[in-house]
Design brief:
Shape: elongated
Radius of gyration: 55 Å
Distance between the termini: 97 Å
Protein name: Putative kip1 ubiquitination-promoting complex protein 2
InterPro entries: UBA (IPR015940), UBA-like_sf (IPR009060), UBAC1 (IPR052476), Ubiquitin-like_domsf (IPR029071), UBL_UBAC1 (IPR057650)
Structural class: alpha+beta
Number of helices: 11
Number of strands: 5
Largest sheet: 5 strands, mixed
Domain UBA: 173-213
Helix content: 55-70%
Order of helices and strands: EEHHEEEHHHHHHHHH
Organism: Rhipicephalus microplus (Cattle tick)
Pfam family, one: UBA_7
Length: 284
């Protein structure tokens, strides 16, 4: 494929290329022909190739085939506008919009005369926010209502009833459906009402509460009965010990020691049998 490249000065150069060549490579070849070959890479960013037939600049990263360049086409090698002009404009614009600091203000106003330096500043009336204004309106309404009700004949009774209503604790209404469920389960009405009030009218939680309360009562009763049984067993054991001691004292001296040992063993075994308590972990 043979094309012609024309510089900005009007010099034309014909060159044979392959469709696989990139536009960047073609541009560097043109720069090495028109300019110093050693500077073609440095100058590549400052130039561009423009297709005459398509009337548009070519992308440097695209290939000749992708840009649809044909045999005999003419390309123009033109110098770009300043590459760094956009960045320079952005930086200058940023500097213009930057807020000056105190040093810059003092430096810029160093030679200016002071005017109205001793003039007192005007008090600016602050606009109150909505919440403050709302509070003021409510306070004024309360004051006006107090003046209107001050001489009302029933005002004392109204305030007494109001105070009593504020002090007394209102009991929550009982859910009839939840109470019916607990009564059908076999619980007493007073216990069911108390359980519902304690557990925010939830029947399942109230049922668990009642069952836990029943277990605690059973444990307390069992502990009381066990304490009574232990005291009774202790008194019975004391009487048995006295009887056995009396019997042992009546025996001979040689048989006395054997009798004491056997009596102690029997007493201990009897005590263990009476005071036997099964292990809950082993039973479970």
């Amino acid at each position: 494929m043979k094309i012609s490249v024309m510089s900005s000065t009007g010099v034309e150069w014909s060159v044979e290329i392959l469709p696989e060549y990139t536009v960047e490579k073609l541009k560097q070849m043109s720069l090495s022909h028109f300019c110093n070959p050693l500077d073609c890479i440095k100058l590549s960013d400052y130039y561009k190739l423009v297709s005459v037939s398509q009337a548009r600049p070519l992308c440097d990263l695209s290939s000749v085939r992708e840009e649809k360049i044909r045999d005999g086409d003419e390309l123009l090698l033109l110098k770009r506008s300043s590459t760094f002009s956009g960045n320079a404009n952005k930086s200058s614009e940023g500097q213009m919009l930057a807020v000056p600091d105190k040093g810059a203000i003092d430096l810029a106003t160093a030679n200016l005369e002071r005017k109205n330096f001793d003039k007192p500043a005007m008090d600016v009336q602050l606009v109150a926010d909505f919440q403050t204004e709302l509070r003021r309106i409510l306070v004024s309404l309360l004051e006006l209502s107090e003046k209107l009700l001050r001489h009302h004949p029933d005002i004392e009774n109204i305030f007494k009833n109001l105070q009593s209503k504020l002090i007394e604790k209102r009991e929550p209404d009982i859910d009839e459906a939840a109470l019916k469920k607990l009564l059908e389960m076999g619980f007493e009405e007073q216990q069911a009402i108390q359980a519902l009030r304690e557990n925010k009218m939830c029947p399942m939680t109230a049922m668990d509460w009642l069952l836990a309360k029943g277990c605690r009562q059973e444990n307390d009763s069992c502990s009381e009965t066990s304490a009574e049984d232990i005291s009774a067993r202790a008194t019975a054991q004391a009487s048995v010990d006295k009887q056995m001691n009396a019997e042992v004292l009546n025996g001979s001296t040689e048989m006395e020691q054997k009798g004491i040992v056997s009596a102690m063993l029997e007493c201990f075994q009897e005590y263990k049998r009476k005071d036997f308590k099964p292990n809950k972990k082993a039973m479970s």
